[in-house]
């Protein structure tokens, strides 16, 4: 069911109907170039169902990988190091680095498990028959 905002946007696109005209150097109307798609209401071309985004406009989750989990963990480690080093009054960077390494090491399997859970749920929803309301 479309939201109020989506309904208003669609109504607006129908109200503001216009046509694109191609003119050559002499001022004569010409056929549109083959790569240009003409749309009468200014909306974007509709993509095929296979390329459509998942439910709710969300992206399709990628299969889990240890490499992606490691990259996320390294980013978290850098952020944790910066936060702990700035909040520490004694400027003990070794302690902040130790905490950042611990958080990074613990975050890798957690992220991988979370990605695996999300991907399995996505696959289950794809295989499940559509429910009627």
Task: Give a structural overview.
It is a single chain. This protein has about 130 residues and is mainly alpha-helical. It folds into 2 domains: about 5-45, no CATH class; about 55-125, no CATH class. It is about 50% helix and about 5% strand. It has 3 helices and 2 strands, in the order αββαα. The chain has a two-stranded antiparallel ribbon with strand order 1-2. Helix 2 (about 65-85) packs antiparallel against helix 3 (about 95-125). The longest helix is centred in the last third of the chain and has 35 residues, at about 95-125. About 5% of the residues are buried. The model has no long low-confidence stretch (mean pLDDT about 80).
Structural Rg: 26 Å
Low-pLDDT stretches: none
Strand content: under 5%
- The oligomeric status of these chains comes to single chain
Q: What string, H for helix and E for strand, traces the elements in order?
A: HEEHH
Helix run count = 3
Helix content: 40-55%
Label this structure with key terms:
elongated, 2 domains, mainly alpha, 2 strands, 52% helix, two-stranded antiparallel sheet, 133 residues
